[in-house]
């Protein structure tokens, strides 16, 4: 075996990567031509690449490194747990201390009455669990016809067959036979892109009422659940109008539809509370968790389940589970992460220090000629790019071309921002300081200026 290290020349690492590593959500042939950026280490909110660049990670990895990089105490917990019990399963009437302790702590932090956790290795797996759990719940209640699940267009719930079907990404459905049967998608509450002449409040109500119309179309006795992210993340940080969630809650209550809040991004402080459900006053039956549960230091996810659903599921054998459900090392690391979030008052920091500074910074960027406005909640936000702010117009050329250009200018200026179409999205580590937010905004403005100049030169504005 040849030894591959951080000290090898970038080109050599890129060549081996191109020869053997198939990247997710990537045209691999194109990447092989360009060479992947090699990240070698990270500390706090900064990544270092193999060329020695220090890059401010405005996305916390994939919305997950809530406590920031380089926490050696997390490594110590992992090492200790690996030495003591690296693995054991939780099937066949066994358990272990890390899973016991983590489930108790999640239940303590979760909204009242949500005292039960089914562990998974990721958000995708957890959402697959949810599909089977809500259908099993209704079957056990003597209503097996209640099996259809309603989700939303442009939602993201994962990449497996089940979770990808719950998601509403057409370009994903186009490959591999998704969606699976029994999943339906209604419109999303994206006022910026789809609200037309309605006020945000009118639009929020109209989109929520699509749920009622869909339930009536399918028949109340055929619908098991509605699933949604409190704030759509991968869809473009879409913060729904204030009228949206109360109306969704009313409809779920009226028709006895289980409500699944996908908290994979919103959970563990991202919106300033433990869960986005608390920020929006949502009362879910199940919450999907992953990402910020361990701050990405270990792969772990799960379903936080209310007492009523858990009591019905608990009365039967639920024939479902993963080898790594409640993995001891991942659980111990996640528990340490939850302790750090509390010991360092990181949610207070989001609410009172970083969140307001981040909002002010992004709103400050909204005066840029390319930026249509700023949507922010806690430490997630989006900047829709537009050639004309008042009409919220789209660019004349290919959708997403300017967004991609802006992402590349961000990278060139040592800042990670992601683009979803022509919308820039951001979600930095929750520990980001006001000084680091200033660095973020300076680099973002420079990237926006360069994007504007380049787009103008290429006649794309
Ligand atoms: N749900 C949401 C809301 C997500 O944002 C994601 C990942 N971006 C997932 C589920 C899937 O999680 P994973 O990638 O861990 O499978």
TrEMBL record:
<dbReference type="InterPro" id="IPR015422">
    <property type="entry name" value="PyrdxlP-dep_Trfase_small"/>
</dbReference>
<keyword id="KW-0808">Transferase</keyword>
<protein>
    <submittedName>
        <fullName>Aspartate aminotransferase family protein</fullName>
    </submittedName>
</protein>
<dbReference type="GO" id="GO:0030170">
    <property type="term" value="F:pyridoxal phosphate binding"/>
</dbReference>
<dbReference type="Pfam" id="PF00202">
    <property type="entry name" value="Aminotran_3"/>
</dbReference>
<dbReference type="InterPro" id="IPR015424">
    <property type="entry name" value="PyrdxlP-dep_Trfase"/>
</dbReference>
<dbReference type="InterPro" id="IPR005814">
    <property type="entry name" value="Aminotrans_3"/>
</dbReference>
<dbReference type="InterPro" id="IPR015421">
    <property type="entry name" value="PyrdxlP-dep_Trfase_major"/>
</dbReference>
<dbReference type="InterPro" id="IPR049704">
    <property type="entry name" value="Aminotrans_3_PPA_site"/>
</dbReference>
<comment type="similarity">
    <text>Belongs to the class-III pyridoxal-phosphate-dependent aminotransferase family.</text>
</comment>
<dbReference type="GO" id="GO:0008483">
    <property type="term" value="F:transaminase activity"/>
</dbReference>
<keyword id="KW-0663">Pyridoxal phosphate</keyword>
<keyword id="KW-0032">Aminotransferase</keyword>
């Amino acid at each position: 075996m040849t030894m591959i290290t951080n000290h090898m020349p970038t080109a050599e690492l890129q060549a081996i990567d191109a020869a053997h590593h198939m990247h997710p959500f990537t045209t691999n042939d194109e990447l092989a031509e360009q060479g992947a950026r090699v990240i070698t280490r990270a500390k706090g909110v900064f990544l270092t690449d193999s060329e020695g660049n220090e890059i401010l990670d405005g996305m916390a990895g994939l919305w997950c490194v809530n406590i920031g990089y380089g926490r050696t105490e997390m490594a110590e917990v992992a090492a200790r747990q690996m030495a003591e019990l690296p693995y054991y399963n939780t099937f066949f009437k066994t358990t272990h201390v890390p899973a016991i302790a983590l489930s108790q702590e999640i239940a303590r932090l979760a909204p009242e009455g949500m005292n039960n956790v089914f562990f998974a290795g990721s958000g995708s797996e957890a959402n697959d669990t949810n599909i089977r759990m809500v259908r099993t719940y209704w079957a056990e209640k003597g209503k097996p016809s209640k099996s259809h699940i309603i989700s939303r267009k442009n939602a993201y719930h994962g990449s497996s067959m089940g979770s990808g079907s719950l998601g509403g990404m057409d370009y994903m459905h186009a490959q591999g036979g998704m969606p699976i049967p029994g999943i339906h998608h209604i419109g999303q509450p994206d006022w910026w892109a789809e609200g037309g002449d309605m006020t945000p409040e009118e639009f929020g109500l109209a989109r929520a009422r699509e749920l009622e119309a869909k339930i009536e179309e399918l028949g109340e006795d055929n619908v098991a659940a509605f699933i949604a992210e409190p704030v759509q993340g991968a869809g473009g940080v879409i913060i729904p109008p204030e009228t949206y969630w109360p109306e969704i809650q009313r409809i779920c209550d009226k028709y006895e539809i289980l409500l699944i809040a996908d908290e994979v991004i919103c959970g563990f402080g991202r919106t300033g509370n433990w869960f986005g459900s608390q920020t929006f006053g949502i009362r879910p039956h199940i919450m999907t968790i992953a990402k910020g549960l361990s701050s990405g230091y270990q792969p772990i996810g799960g379903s936080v389940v209310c007492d009523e659903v858990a009591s019905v599921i608990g009365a039967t054998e639920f024939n479902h589970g993963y080898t790594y459900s409640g993995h001891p090392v991942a659980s111990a690391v996640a528990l340490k992460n939850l302790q750090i979030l509390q010991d360092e008052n990181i949610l207070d920091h989001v609410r009172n220090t970083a969140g307001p500074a981040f909002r002010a910074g992004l709103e400050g960027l909204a005066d840029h000629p390319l930026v249509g406005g700023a949507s922010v909640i806690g430490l997630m936000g989006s900047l829709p790019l537009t050639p004309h702010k008042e009409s919220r117009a789209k660019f004349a050329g290919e959708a997403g071309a300017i967004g991609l250009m802006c992402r590349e200018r961000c990278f060139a200026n040592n800042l990670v921002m992601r683009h979803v179409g022509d919308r820039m999205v951001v979600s930095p580590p929750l520990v980001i300081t006001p000084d680091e937010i200033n660095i973020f905004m300076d680099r973002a403005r420079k990237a926006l200026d360069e994007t504007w100049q380049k787009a103008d030169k290429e006649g794309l504005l």
